[in-house]
Structures are given as C-alpha cells and as structure tokens.
Amino acid sequence: MLKRFGVAVDEELLDGFDRLLASRGYENRSEAIRDLIRDALVQRDWRSGTGEVAGAVVLVYDHRRRELQATLTKLQHQAHDLIISTMHAHLDHDNCIEVVLLRGSPKELQRIGERLIATRGVKHGRVVATTIGARLP
Ligand code: NI
User: In a 3-state reduction of DSSP, which class is residue 92?
Assistant: First the structure.
C-alpha cells in the first residue's frame, strides 16, 4: 500500500536535490526518495553485522605479481561458502579485473572483502554492499 507524506525542506537543499535527480535520470522525487530509503536500510543491515546480505568485491591487479593470483585463489577457496561466483577479465597485457559475488553475513563478507583488497599487489579494490532483496519492498 502506498502512503503519502509531506516533507519540509529548505529551498536551496531541494533545488540541489532536484538537480541531482535530473542528472541521474529520475522522473520524479518519489522514486528517488524510495531509493534513498532503501539504500539507508541496506547500509543499516550491513552495519548491524547480522542477517544475510549480498555484495561484490571488485579487484584490479597485475597478474605478473609473484604469488598474487595464488594468494587470491587460496583466500577465495577458504571463503567458498560465501562466494557465489567470480568473474575475471583481462584489462590489458598485465592488468586484470576480478569481481567476486558474495552472499552471507555482513561481517564475514566485509572480512573476506577487506582481506582480498589488502592482499599485497592488489592495485585497487572496493566492497560493494547490497541486499539479497527478499525483505526490501
Ligand atoms: Ni587476467
């Protein structure tokens, strides 16, 4: 069921919000506000450390780095119960991008994500926090 509510907002703040929505392709404020609420709920789920969430770890590294690929593979095998899938692509002659899809407790996902990113030789990494969607209207 849809419920309506009024919000009092400073004019300047609302102008900024409207410009943001336009640049992101939102057709109206309602859908943008729903997305902001859902994002806040997902962030809360991750911060709570409990329940089940989904996420992705993105890694960029040079595959010629000694032992790096073996270390990343070992870490992923140790976390096989959390990893749904891994995608690897070759960016150029030396650089690889890897996306590791995860599902499980936020604490464990954060831990394996940070461990992969902290592995020596990984140039850049990011943990993307999202939801399994089931309890998010
Ligand atoms: Ni590669």
Answer: coil
Ligand 1: centre distance to CA 74 (Å) = 17
Distance 136 CA to ligand 1 centre (A): 36
Q: At a CB cut-off of 8 Å and minimum separation 6, what does 122 contact?
A: 59, 60, 61, 68, 72, 116
93 alpha carbon – ligand 1 mean position (Å): 8
Rounded CA-CA distance 27/34 in Å is: 13
Ligand 1 centroid–CA 126 distance in Å is: 18
The pair of three-digit structure tokens given for residue 113, joined into one six-digit string: 């994500």
Mean pLDDT computed over 32-39: 95
pLDDT at residue 33, rounded to an integer: 95
